[in-house]
Write a structure and sequence with these properties.
heterodimer, A: 159 residues, 7 helices, B: alpha+beta, 5-stranded antiparallel beta sheet, globular
C-alpha cells in the first residue's frame, strides 16, 4: 500500500508533467505547477515527520537539562520558567512512532517544542543584562546548537 | 479599443478605468484605451499598462499610463500603501531620480473597487534576474558596460537627492543613534505579527541579535532609501535605467541599507556581479566617490541579517495570507518552505 508521502509525490508528478503542460492560461498553469511543488514539499515533510519529531524532542530535552544545570539561583524567574516549559514540551509530547494508531501527519499539526524554544530564546535576550555577557553567550551558544540541528532538519524538505 | 478581453477577462474594469481617465483628463467623449495589458497577478499590487487616446480642442493625444490597484491582500499588507507611493513619486518629480511621473491617486474604492494610482508608462523592460533569459540580458548588458554604471548612478541620484526639499519627510525621519535600525526592525516585526504564523526560535534569535547590535547611523547623511534596489526593480531602456520601480518600502534612513542590498548575495545567481550586473569594485568606488559615503562592511553585514529577517517576514506574510484564505494564489502557499531557507542565511551570518 502506498504511504501518504508516496501518494502525494505521485500526484505532484501528475500535476507537473501531465496537467500543467496542458493548461493554456498562464495563471492557471502556474497554479498547476505550484500545486505539484507544494505536494512534493508536504510529501517530504511527511516522510521525515516521525524522525524529525523525535529528534526535535530529544535535542530539546537535552538542551533543557543542560540549561537547568547551568542556571543559578539569582537568574530571572522568567528564564527559569522558559527552560522548564521547554523540558515539558520535550517530554510530554506524544511520539507517533510509539503509537502506531497515530498518523505522522499529526506531528505536523502543532509544534510545541518550537514554541518553547522561541520562548526560551526570547527570555534569554530579555535576561541578557542580568546574565552578563559571558553567561549569555554560553547559554545562547548552547541553545543555538539545538536550533542549528532543528533548522537542518527543516531544510531537508524545504530547499 | 473599448472594453475587450486584453485585460484578462475584465472588460467592466477597463471601461471603468476609461471613464475615470476621461473625467480626469477632461476628455468627455471619444477616449479609448489601447494595448491594455495586466502585468502582475497576486504577488503585489495589480498593475495595468495601456495607452489612452483622445482628442479635444487642443488636438489629438496619445499618452501611456500605468495603473496600480491595491487588491487588499498584497504581501506587504499595510506596509505597502499606494497613497504613500503616490506621494513619493510626486516628490521625486524634478529631483533627477529616474521614476515614473505620478498623475492621479484615488482612494475611493467605489471607483475601481479598491484604491489605485495612475502614473507614467515609462519605456523600458524589466527582466527578472532569476530567470535564464533575464540573466542573459544582464550578462550581455554587463559586457557592454553602460548599464552597470547607470545602475550605480541611479542609486547615487537617489541617495543624494534633497528629500526634505522634495517633501518626503512625511515618510518619517529617524532620530540619532540607532533609531533607524530600531524603526526598521519594528516595521518588519509588525508584518511578522500580522502573518499569524507559529513563532520560530531562529527568527527570535535573529530579531534579538538585531536589536542588541543595531549600529548608529550618525556618521552618514540620512537619505531617501528605496528598500529593494536591485535589477528586477528597475526599468531599463537603451542600456539606461529609465525608472526605478516598486516604491513599496521607501524610508528616510541610512543609505547603506540600500547599498547592502545591492551587495547582497540575495540578488545574484551564478555570478559574482552585483545584481547580476555590476563589478563589486566598480560599484563601491563609483558610489563612494560620488556620494562621499564610505561603505562600512560591518554595517552592511548587519543589514544583511536585517534583510534575512525581512525576507522571513515577507514569506511568513505570504503564506499567512494563503493560510487565512485572504489570497488563494498557491505561489503564496509555497513560500512557507522559503522561511527556513532565509532563516538559514540569518543563522549562518550569526555564526551557526
Amino acid at each position: 500500500m502506498l504511504r501518504d508521502d508516496e501518494l502525494l509525490s505521485r500526484i505532484a508528478g501528475v500535476l507537473r508533467h501531465d496537467v500543467g503542460p496542458q493548461v493554456q492560461q498562464d495563471f492557471a498553469k502556474t497554479q498547476a505547477f505550484m500545486a505539484g511543488v507544494i505536494l512534493d514539499k508536504v510529501a517530504g515533510q511527511l516522510r521525515h515527520a516521525v524522525a524529525h519529531h523525535r529528534a526535535d524532542r530529544a535535542d530539546a530535552g537535552a538542551l533543557a537539562a543542560e540549561l537547568q544545570a547551568s542556571l543559578q539561583p539569582g537568574d530571572p524567574a522568567s528564564l527559569r520558567g522558559s527552560v522548564e516549559a521547554l523540558h515539558r514540551a520535550a517530554s510530554s509530547d506524544t511520539d507517533p512512532a510509539d503509537n502506531p494508531a497515530d498518523d505522522p501527519a499529526d506531528t505536523l499539526a502543532g509544534d510545541p517544542v518550537g514554541g518553547a524554544l522561541h520562548a526560551l530564546v526570547t527570555e534569554l535576550y530579555a535576561a541578557r543584562a542580568a546574565l552578563g555577557a559571558e553567561r549569555f553567550d554560553a547559554l545562547l551558544g548552547r541553545t543555538r546548537t539545538a536550533l542549528r540541528a532543528r533548522l537542518d532538519r527543516q531544510l531537508a524538505y524545504s530547499r | 479599443m473599448s472594453a475587450d478581453t486584453a485585460a484578462g477577462g475584465e472588460p467592466a474594469l477597463v471601461d471603468r478605468i476609461r471613464d475615470y481617465l476621461a473625467g480626469q483628463l477632461g476628455a468627455s467623449a471619444g477616449l479609448e484605451l489601447r494595448d491594455v495589458q495586466r502585468i502582475a497577478v497576486g504577488w503585489s499590487h495589480e498593475t495595468w499598462l495601456f495607452d489612452a487616446v483622445w482628442s479635444d480642442a487642443e488636438g489629438d493625444h496619445a499618452v501611456g499610463y500605468c495603473l496600480r490597484r491595491d487588491p487588499g491582500n498584497a504581501l506587504l499588507r499595510n506596509l505597502s500603501d499606494l497613497g504613500v507611493q503616490f506621494r513619493v513619486l510626486q516628490g521625486l518629480a524634478g529631483t533627477g531620480v529616474p521614476a515614473p511621473a505620478a498623475y492621479f491617486y484615488e482612494d475611493d474604492a467605489a471607483v475601481l473597487g479598491a484604491p489605485f494610482l495612475v502614473m507614467e508608462k515609462v519605456p523600458g523592460v524589466c527582466p527578472s534576474p532569476w530567470g535564464r533569459a533575464g540573466q542573459q540580458f544582464y550578462r550581455e548588458a554587463a559586457e557592454r558596460g553602460v548599464l552597470p554604471l547607470d545602475f550605480t548612478d541611479a542609486l547615487i541620484k537617489l541617495h543624494t537627492c534633497d528629500w526634505r526639499a522634495a517633501g518626503l519627510d512625511f515618510l518619517g525621519v529617524p532620530g540619532p543613534g540607532n533609531d533607524f535600525c530600531r524603526r526598521e526592525i519594528a516595521t518588519w516585526k509588525g508584518l511578522i505579527e500580522q502573518a499569524e504564523i507559529e513563532p520560530d526560535p531562529v527568527l527570535a534569535d535573529t530579531i534579538g541579535w538585531l536589536e542588541a547590535n543595531a549600529p548608529a547611523t550618525d556618521g552618514r547623511p540620512l537619505a531617501l532609501v528605496h528598500g529593494a534596489y536591485r535589477t528586477g526593480n528597475v526599468l531599463i531602456h537603451d542600456d539606461r535605467v529609465s525608472a526605478i520601480l516598486d516604491w513599496e518600502t521607501p524610508v528616510i534612513g541610512d543609505p547603506l541599507y540600500d547599498v547592502a542590498y545591492v551587495l547582497s548575495e540575495l540578488n545574484r545567481e551564478g555570478t559574482e556581479l552585483l545584481s547580476n550586473l555590476v563589478e563589486r569594485d566598480t560599484f563601491v568606488s563609483r558610489y563612494e566617490a560620488a556620494t562621499g559615503i564610505e561603505i562600512d562592511p560591518a554595517v552592511c553585514d548587519y543589514y544583511h541579517v536585517l534583510y534575512a529577517m525581512r525576507s522571513a517576514a515577507f514569506w511568513m506574510s505570504a503564506s499567512g495570507l494563503f493560510a487565512t484564505g485572504r489570497n488563494p494564489d498557491l505561489r503564496l502557499a509555497r513560500t512557507r518552505w522559503s522561511v527556513p531557507v532565509v532563516l538559514d542565511q540569518a543563522a549562518r551570518r550569526l555564526g551557526y
